[in-house]
Amino acid sequence: MLKIGYLGIRGSNSYAAAKQYFFETGKLIGVSHFLELFQALKTGVVNRIIIPVENSLAGSVVENYDLIRKYHFQVVGEYYLQFENHLLGVPECGLNKVNNLKKIKQVFSHPQALAQCSQFFKKHHWVEQLGFTDTAAAARFVAKKGDMGLAAIGNREAALIYNLEIVKKNIADDNQRNYTRFFILSKPMAVPKNANRCSLFFTLKHRPGSLCEVLTIFAKYQLNLLKIESRPIHGRPFKYFFFTDFEWGKQPLNKIKSIIQLCQKKTLILKILGFYQGGRL
Questions:
Q1: Does 94 have pLDDT greater than 80?
Q2: How far apart are CA 66 and CA 83, in angstroms?
Q3: Rg of the chain on CA atoms, in Å
Q4: pTM of this prediction?
Q5: Residues in CB range of 177: below 8 A, 6 or more apart
Q6: DSSP label of 192
Q7: What pLDDT, in 10s, does the model give residues 36-89?
């Protein structure tokens, strides 16, 4: 049986993503921090980990991109989860008591979830935002406290698990299009036959046109660039890695690999993170 590591506890968004992606075919193991996930995969405590890498509202989870580069695990899958960012409170704060929203003084959640609800906090300026390890842990904390002045941001499953009520539904800035992209990572394994996407990172010579030379190869061979993002190289001020995702159509994998080799000749370092089947929104 697969052992799958995820961030948080039952009811967290990562828990929901793992549950949906693996269809309950493996054992789900929650941890408190992203670094613990990578260490658990390295030591064999788990066979796969599922990590958030990008949100449609708040942007990239940069910590995880840095950990991916450091640990050199293989990206073997991708999943998009539509987030439910509900404001959760103790049962006395039910939807039929509108004035109770004004009584909430502190809201707890993962920093990414808080960032996705910036307009809510701008409107309710008296509410203090407090970061937590994950959304479900924040919900559990609020439930244990039983204080009407406290609330959490989480999903419907967390509300059910920890006996909280939804004080206000869908408080994210754009609740209809709030998706988070997850990577599934493993130690090196065979490339899936249905792979149609690739993630990689590279560094370049510090001269005019070096990035353009790489992107020209993508364009020439009709590779669809999905993402490119720079991250600083630690210990080398103002030097950067470029993380890139792309997809292709009917070209065979060997052809894609040969195109990547052409790109490699234009870079200082190029590392393939994985070939995988792209997720669907």
A1: no
A2: 24
A3: 21
A4: 0.85
A5: 56, 57
A6: P
A7: 999 999 999 999 999 999 988 788 999 999 999 999 999 999 999 988 899 999
Task: Choose among 198, 211, 210, 207: nearest CA to 274.
Answer: 198
Closest CA to 152 of 136, 163, 174: 136
Q: Are the beta carbons of 210 and 266 closer than 8 angstroms?
A: yes
Was domain 198-274 assigned CATH 3.40.140.20? no
Q: Which CATH number fits domain 3-82+179-186: 3.90.380.10, 3.40.190.10, 3.10.20.580, 3.40.50.2020?
A: 3.40.190.10
Nearest to 80 by CA among 33, 26, 21, 162: 21
CA distances from 10 to 29, 113, 135, 258 (A): 9, 16, 10, 43
Sequence-ordered strand ranges (E) for the chain: 3-7, 27-31, 48-55, 59-60, 74-82, 86-89, 106-109, 128-131, 150-154, 165-168, 179-186, 197-203, 224-232, 240-247, 269-276
Compute the distance between CA of residue 198 and CA of residue 275 in angstroms, rounded to an integer. 5
Report the 10 Å Cβ neighbour count for 2: 12
- Strand pairing category for 3-7 and 48-55: parallel
